[in-house]
Amino acid sequence: MPREKVKQLMTSEPGRDVLVKGWVRTRRGSKQVSFVALNDGSTINNIQVVIDMQAFDEDKLRLITTGACLAVEGELVKSEGRGQKVEIQAKKIEIYGPANPEKYPLQKKGHSMEFLREIAHLRFRTNTFGAVFRIRHAMAYAIHKYFNDRGFYYLHTPIITGSDAEGAGEMFRVTTFDLNDAPRDKNGGVDYSRDFFGKETNLTVSGQLEGEMGALSLGEIYTFGPTFRAENSNTPRHLAEFWMIEPEMAFYDIDDNMDLAEDLTKYLITYALDNCYDDLEFLNNMIDKGLIDRLRFVLDNEYARITYTQAVDVLLKADKQWEFPVGWGKDLQAEHERYLVEQYYKRPVMITDYPMDIKAFYMKQNDDGKTVRALDVLFPFIGEIIGGSQREEEYDKLERRIKELGMPREQLWWFMETRKFGTAPHSGFGLGFERLILFVTGMKNIRDVIPFPRTPRSAEF
Ligand code: 4AD
Ligand code: MG
Predict the structure, then answer these.
(1) Residue 237 to residues 69, 228, 302, 336, 391: CA-CA distances in angstroms?
(2) For the segment 271-312, what is each residue's pLDDT rounded down to a tens digit?
């Protein structure tokens, strides 16, 4: 008999024999009859297995405890219980793997997120993490669907690079050298010309620079891959390894870029509501009572579109004691971003035209000589979810900026050539995948929306 998944069985008609396989969530009952809630990961819902205690071996029955893995054959029958249409009257039970109840770390009582992080290998077995990771999958699929349906090509940009796209110096080095015995050059420095790639290399902080090469030939591309930042930020919004979606589009200006950012994020939220409702409802009940309303609210409202200068004006007029001072030229901090989104505009906010000095070298310079065509998209409870810009496509301006910042020009020769040969106006942005999942699931800590988080001093599993 072929195995069927719980998700399909829940909506199928009773009156036939079926085979299910899954893990025991709970078991209750009496000497005569046992009720087992079985979950196979296909849905937040468990299927109820009814076991006639007289019909099975006592030795076998003893092994059916929370966490054990079973295969159950039986008749799918109409359920008298509340909240389920069908249940299984067990005829045959095979125990794949028992789970010693004295030792199994997951108990029926609710566990803290911190504790579950310590058992990240088992936390998928909880309702919350099942829901989060089903939604994460759905969002990844929807991202590919969105771009594919609109003629964007998925471009695989490298994970090992020789450049620092963001110029922030927050990179993990890649080397095959023995750190205690690395070859030295004549000045006593490490001689990377003898390293694996013949130069200094690191894990990428962004696929953008290579993505631009793709856009300037293929038109519209996107990347969707892991990125790495060695910033020592122990916050609920930062990971050292996170996934980023980076669309890059020839012939888009900053307004087209904003339109795409708004359309993409709204599409993804709509997709979650249409396809993950059971899981969202569970998270709405258990994690964040405002979740579903908030998702709907974002869909029903246009994002505010303001410049950095306007944002600073709003903040200066606010009747607030800021921890970090506000002033033209200073970067916006989380407290400022959250005020703009949650209290002032009360919807997502897109901010453009930041001071040149606080943004990356590749952003298009405005005629005022002070600002660049940057774009940050801020979301309620998350803050920055997207960072991007229109790109500087003029060779001379870009060259000057690279020099001003003292960046290693020779490493960027290939990037500059696209400005030399057939340059074009273009734009793009990076959507932080885990920040999106935080918003869509209502989870509070970014470590709880990636299967195995990497953060300072933590790379278990
Ligand atoms: O604003 P960022 O640094 O922009 C870039 O990397 C550009 N190259 C993107 C582009 O224009 N193609 O990062 C983009 C987004 C942020 O808005 C945030 O959502 C996420 O990536 N992000 C992080 N997410 C988790 N942990 C971190 N340490 C993150 N740093 C950035
Ligand atoms: Mg940013």
Answers:
(1) 35, 14, 25, 16, 26
(2) 999 999 999 999 999 999 999 999 999 999 999 999 999 999
- Tell me the CA–centroid distance for residue 333 and ligand 2, in Å: 11
- Do the two domains 6-97 and 124-170+205-448 of this chain adopt the same fold? no
Ligand 1, atom 26, residue with closest C-alpha: 238
Largest CA distance in the chain: 85
Cα of 89 vs centre of ligand 1, distance in Å, is 51
Is 438 close to ligand 1, i.e. is its CB under 6 Å away?
no
pTM, rounded to two decimals: 0.97
The answer to whether residue 107 scores a pLDDT higher than 90 is: no
Residue position matching structure tokens 């997709």: 271
Q: Is the CB of 241 under 6 A from ligand 1?
A: no
Cα(22)–Cα(3) distance, rounded to whole angstroms?
10
Best CA proximity match to 135, nearest among 236, 261, 278, 242 = 278
Q: What is the CATH number of domain 6-97?
A: 2.40.50.140
Ligand 1 site, residue 429, Cβ cutoff 6 A: yes
Kindly give the distance from the C-alpha atom of residue 242 to the centroid of ligand 1, in angstroms, as a whole number: 9
- 433-454, pLDDT tens digit by residue? 999 999 999 999 999 999 999 9
Could you identify the atom of ligand 1 that is nearest to the CA of residue 246? Answer: 12
Q: Which amino acid is at 272?
A: A
Residue 304 Cα, ligand 1 centroid: separation in angstroms?
20
Domain segments of the chain as ranges:
6-97, 124-170+205-448
Rounded-to-integer distance, Cα 224 and Cα 323, Å: 35
What architecture is the 124-170+205-448 domain classified under in CATH?
2-Layer Sandwich (3.30)
